[in-house]
Amino acid sequence: MKERKYFEDFEDGFVFDFDVPPLTPHDIVSFATQYDPQRFHLDDGEARTTHFGSLVASGFQTQLLCFQPFCRQVLVDSFAIGAPGIDELKWLRPWYPGEKLSGRVKLVGKRQSSSRTDRGYLTFLLEADAGDEPLFSMRWTVIILTREGASPP
Fold it and tell me: Which residue ranges of the chain lie beneath pLDDT 70?
C-alpha cells in the first residue's frame, strides 16, 4: 500500500502521465444508452448523417475515462476531501472508436487555505490527446488535508 499524500507532499512540477485504451463501438453505445442517449452516440448509421460522420463517444465518457487513472493512482492515495468544482472543461474534438488517448495531469496551482490551517487547495490541469491532436482538457481544484489537518486531535 502506498503512503498517502498530504497537501505538503504535492510539489511544483508534479506531473502524472496516463493512457486510455481505445473504445469499441459497443463501449460507446453502452455508455450512451445509460447516460447520454443522443443519436450520434447510439447508432453509427444515424451518426453518419451528422457533422461527426460516424459514432463518437460522449464527452462525459471522455471526461470520466481520462479522470479515472488520476483518481485511482493519485487521489485515492492522498488526503483529498473533495473539490469545489471544475473551473474549465473543454471537449476540443470528438473521440472516435479505435483511438487511443494519452494524457498528462499537471499541478498548476497550490495554496494554503487562508481560513482553515488544516487544508489546502491544489489546482490540476488535465490534457488528453488522440495521437498528436488535442481532444480534451479540464482544470479543477481539489481540497486536501495538511499534515496538521489529517492528524487526530
Answer: 1, 152-153
